[in-house]
Structures are given as structure tokens and as C-alpha cells.
Specification:
heterodimer, A: 110 residues, six-stranded mixed beta sheet, five-stranded antiparallel beta sheet, B: 115 residues, mainly beta, seven-stranded mixed beta sheet, four-stranded antiparallel beta sheet, 11 strands, globular
């Protein structure tokens, strides 16, 4: 089974609002990454957080990691219509095993 | 810098036929991945190469799927014979490996429809 599970499965918000999506995973990890996938396209790397980090920022993105709860969250602030996409967390477990979650489908309404 | 190239973009075949996908990773990337993404799901890792050696193929259905990476650069993924449940997008990704902390760069994928 896949390592990561995103929540919610789908999210619809108005432009300018913030979007938060969560990821839970099962085993110890080396790092956790978030990727975006636009419809019919390949995945694009957004941000990486290491297992010894708790929070990381990149532009309008904020990622948190709680290794005790085996969970992470991605916050997109001031969302734009162009942020409409599916978002996946991916865990890099020790032993070079790489797992993607099930994804959150985000729709930003102009 | 050129991205990960995949071909073909689309492929339609009948069940029990064979199909092959090709991937050219970013120059200098030692690690290459093949993923299967079924509609509505996250990508599932099929096989991971480090240079031309296999690191992980635990989720590759070896009775019908095969992959190779000649000379540690290009890679091909083959399905023989295809089943209806193989309909999916096949994604290739590459990374610098340990030095790049596993950050992967994806191609646009090949959408396979098995009829």
C-alpha cells in the first residue's frame, strides 16, 4: 500500500483564500516532499522538508512536519486560479524507497 | 537545461499486445524512476535505477513488465502482454540521487489505453 495519505481528497476555495492540505505517512522517513500535478501533465517539485526540520517556507508555500505524529501539512496562502492542480506528498524512506500519497485535488475559483 | 523526455505521449493497444515506452533523463542524473499512475491515484513506483543498476523493483509485475537502462542513460519500460488494468499514465523521473536529496524531475508521461 502507499505510504502517504492526503486529506482532504478534494478542496474547493475562492481565489485569495488559503488552502491547507495534510499528509500522513506510516514509517520513518529521511525527508518529505510535496509535488504539484496539473491536469494531464507530469509532477513538479514544490518543496522538501528534512526529518529534522519542523517548518519550511517557499514563497506562498508553508510546510510543516511532525515526525511524532507522522504527518505534514502544506499551506498555500493567497491562492490563485493557477494553483488549481493535484498536490501529492512523497516520502523518502530510509532504504531509498519512495512513496507518493493519494493526492489532494485543489480547485481555486476565480 | 532540457527536461526529462518521454515518448510516445499516447498509446492505444489491444489487450495481450506488447508496448514499450522510452525515457531520456536529465543529463547527469544518476537515478531514474518509472511510475505507474492510475486515474485518480498517486504515482506508484515500478522501478528505480541508480546508473544502470536496479535499486528497487519490488512493485514491478515481473511476469509482464520489464525495464532496462542501458549505459546508465536512456531507459525503456516494456509491457508484454498488456492487460486492461495496465491502462494508466507511465511517468519517468530522474534525480541527482543522494546529492539531490531525492528531488525528482518528471517527464510529461505516456498515457496508455488498453482496449
Amino acid at each position: 500500500s502507499q505510504q502517504g495519505e492526503e486529506d482532504p481528497q478534494a478542496l474547493s476555495i475562492q481565489e485569495g483564500e488559503n488552502a491547507t492540505m495534510n499528509c500522513s505517512y506510516k514509517t520513518s522517513i529521511n525527508n518529505l516532499q510535496w509535488y504539484r500535478q496539473n491536469s494531464g501533465r507530469g509532477l513538479v517539485h514544490l518543496i522538501l522538508i528534512r526529518s529534522n526540520e519542523r517548518e519550511k517556507h517557499s514563497g506562498r508555500l508553508r510546510v510543516t512536519l511532525d515526525t511524532s505524529k507522522k504527518s505534514s501539512s502544506l499551506l498555500i496562502t493567497a491562492s490563485r486560479a493557477a494553483d488549481t492542480a493535484s498536490y501529492f506528498c512523497a516520502t523518502d524512506a530510509y532504504g531509498n524507497q519512495f512513496y507518493f500519497g493519494t493526492g489532494t485535488s485543489l480547485t481555486v475559483i476565480p | 537545461e532540457a527536461g526529462v523526455a518521454q515518448s510516445p505521449r499516447y498509446k492505444i493497444i489491444e489487450k495481450r499486445q506488447s508496448v514499450a515506452f522510452w525515457c531520456n533523463p536529465i543529463s547527469g542524473h544518476a537515478t531514474l524512476y518509472w511510475y505507474q499512475q492510475i486515474l485518480g491515484q498517486g504515482p506508484k513506483l515500478l522501478i528505480q535505477f541508480q546508473n544502470n543498476g536496479v535499486v528497487d523493483d519490488s512493485q514491478l509485475p515481473k511476469d509482464r513488465f520489464s525495464a532496462e537502462r542501458l549505459k546508465g542513460v536512456d531507459s525503456t519500460l516494456k509491457i508484454q502482454p498488456a492487460k486492461l488494468e495496465d491502462s494508466a499514465v507511465y511517468l519517468c523521473a530522474s534525480s541527482l540521487g543522494v546529492l539531490g536529496e531525492g528531488i525528482q524531475y518528471f517527464g510529461a508521461g505516456t498515457r496508455l489505453s488498453v482496449l
